[in-house]
Write a structure and sequence with these properties.
The protein is α+β, with helices and mostly antiparallel strands. Helices cover 16% and strands 31% of the residues. It has helices at 5-30, 39-42, 121-126, 143-152, 184-191; strands spanning 67-72, 88-93, 99-105, 135-137, 155-156, 169-170, 180-181, 213-214, 217-223, 226-233, 238-243, 246-247, 257-258, 260-266, 268-274, 280-284, 288-296, 299-307, 315-318, 331-337, 343-345.
């Protein structure tokens, strides 16, 4: 029987699907992709890390979902550990004017991460963008927040979960509660790695976008305990973090750095949750639209962020409506309240 051109294409596609299905079936039986003829040419791992756009140090992108860990940022919690291995970090405002970090790993591991602290509603709104099977490590939280984590479908590996309790340790050399630590390896062992690769949330480009203006420093004054500066290091092509009190270093003595810093101006709403000191707990409004600034390569692109619903990804666009490409590498996303104004030094 003769096939039309459309029929031949359809038949070819069908044969390809059948071949993949057969190969996957063999893989399921054997558990060894190397023994399945042609499977590696049909199902290739990505060449670059999905959350940074760069090749991993090991040369192979790990087949696992994203892992988010909530890290404290009070002065008593500094210096923190493990942030240098993260792909993406969000800084969010919490009660009392302080900030905390959502530290997201996927391509690299850290043997010590912390201090780990409690979750917030903002985390549950941000993290599903990276895939609903994202692992989330944290140190408990208010009952309504923990309920939202359960309802979100995120893989809960907080320290109160029986499956993850051995993944956390107290450091006797640090003052409680600023002394809870974990590792990416321990949390992946607790939560598993079968959730698939994370969603590619950010867009990367090697070239600096058109319209970028010179910028050597930006100040983000969240509060008295988090007056943040990012200064561009031309020699290494990195933004270096500091505070009004001095450098922002990690436990290993290295500075906190990023290839990109995205300032996302956001609205804040109150949650009705009050901490022991009487401070109300705010929540970032993670949907809608607002101004943004993308800092990369010693330059800044002014634009707009948008995310219609929690089921959508946040997109950063320039004044012409084009998606702003980030420099391949680690990214810090600063969720800055809209009553704060970034101060840029050219």
């Amino acid at each position: 029987m003769a096939f039309s051109r459309r029929g031949r294409i359809a038949a070819g596609i069908g044969a390809g699907i059948a071949a993949v299905a057969a190969a996957v079936g063999i893989l399921a039986l054997t558990g060894n992709a190397d023994k399945v003829p042609g499977l590696n040419t049909l199902i290739k791992p990505p060449a670059t890390c999905p959350l940074t756009g760069v090749q991993p140090h090991s040369g192979r992108v790990p087949d696992r979902p994203a892992l988010a860990i909530k890290v404290e940022n009070l002065p008593e919690a500094r210096p923190q550990a493990g942030l240098q291995a993260a792909d993406v970090i969000y800084e969010e405002p919490v009660e009392g004017g302080i900030t905390r970090f959502i530290v997201i790993f996927q391509c690299h591991d850290a043997k010590r991460v912390g201090p780990v602290r409690s979750a917030r509603f903002t985390d549950v709104d941000i993290l599903p963008q990276f895939g609903t099977q994202t692992l989330f490590g944290f140190a408990g939280g208010a009952a309504p927040v923990e309920q939202r984590v359960q309802e979100s479908g995120l893989n809960d590996v907080n320290y109160q979960q029986p499956k993850a309790e051995h993944a956390y340790v107290r450091d006797p050399n640090r003052v409680e509660p600023h002394n809870l630590y974990t590792s990416t390896g321990a949390l992946y062992r607790a939560g598993g790695t079968s959730g698939g690769m994370p969603t590619k949330v950010l867009t990367f480009s090697d070239g600096v976008p058109d319209g970028a203006k010179r910028a050597s420093k930006v100040q983000l004054d969240f509060s008295g305990s988090a007056d943040v500066f990012w200064t561009f290091d031309h020699r290494n092509g990195l933004w270096v973090r500091s505070y009004d009190t001095g450098p922002a270093n990690l436990e290993n003595g290295h500075p906190i750095t990023a290839r990109n810093v995205v300032v996302q101006t956001v609205k804040i709403r109150e949650t009705g949750i009050v901490d022991a000191a009487g401070n109300t707990s705010p929540e970032v409004v993670a949907t809608g639209t607002g101004p943004c600034m993308v800092f990369r390569n010693g330059r800044v692109v002014h634009g707009t962020w948008s995310r219609p619903t929690l089921g959508d990804l946040t997109v950063y666009r320039d004044a012409h409506g084009h998606t702003i490409g980030l420099a391949p590498g680690a990214t810090w996303i600063e969720l800055l309240p809209n009553d704060k104004t970034p101060v840029i030094t050219k």
